[in-house]
Write a structure and sequence with these properties.
Blueprint lengths: L3 E5 L11 H9 L2 E4 L2 H10 L6 E3 L5 H13 L4 E4 L11 H10 L3 E5 L4 H9 L6 E6 L4 H11 L5 E6 L4 H12 L4 E6 L7 E6 H10 L6 E5 L17 H10 L4 H12 L3 H16 L1
Parallel strand pairs: 1-4, 1-5, 2-3, 2-4, 6-7
Antiparallel strand pairs: 7-10, 8-9, 8-10
The chain binds S-adenosylmethionine.
Amino acid sequence: MGGTLYLCATPIGNLKDVSARCLEILNMVDLIAAEDTRRTLQLLNHFEIFKPLTSYHEHNKMEKGEYIISLLADGKNVALVSDAGTPAISDPGEDLVKLCIEKNISVTSIPGPVAAINALILSGLSTKRFSFEGFLSVNKRHRKEHLQSIKNDTHTLIFYEAPHKLKYTLADMKDVLGGDRKIALVRELTKLHEEVIRTTIDGALELYEEKSPRGEYVIVIDGAKKDNASENWWDELAVIDHVNIYIKNGMDEKDAIKQTAKERNVPKREVYNEYMKRKADEFE
Ligand code: SAM
């Protein structure tokens, strides 16, 4: 029988955040594959876990991936750990998971810290809908293209960023998203100097005119405001639901369709066809 790949989330700064289950798994597996072996060794030494350790990172993931798969196929259990937080989030773990799925090897996760989610919940921005955008490219053109592609998204946006790139990224964000967007710069989560700066993109740029960014950052940005044209109470409703609200309120079908068409500024026939089609679907 094949072994299992355990995706083990490890602390993003505070060693006390490691879970009891993570320690149990690290003590049980035959091999620990780590993105940054030096960092993982600190964790293992702290908890007196003495297990074979190997590196698995962006630059050796092809050969090392094959090697890890061969061990798993041989029945060995392997733990994968990121340099911090949850493996496969902005690290090559994703590729190893895909390989395991391809080869029918069992994979499971040991949940724990992830910087993006902790930054989101501390940001004060909407947590109802959000997207994780990872790291923006180091290439300015690609960075701007990425920002352009999400400029009109109305949900909260989450980015990872390195301190030495932060100022350039903020400048591009101002260009593309506008300086008045709300932003939270969440740095050094769970560490001694944890800080959440809640401001605007302009405010953040101003702040870093005087000092240099230091530490690890997550950037959380408010979604685009809906324009007036899309701020109608029925925007999120399907046509059939829009019509049905009027019917429930006592209108007959014909008037409800007429009213819906008027509000949506579309021909009555279009609403009628859509309404009849959905109604027929519901009966099927
Ligand atoms: N897999 C990790 C996770 O689950 O969050 C992230 C790994 S990614 C290579 C590293 C990035 O995560 C950093 O550049 C930073 O943007 C973010 N990060 C990691 N630890 C952090 C912390 N303690 N505070 C703020 N951001 C952190």
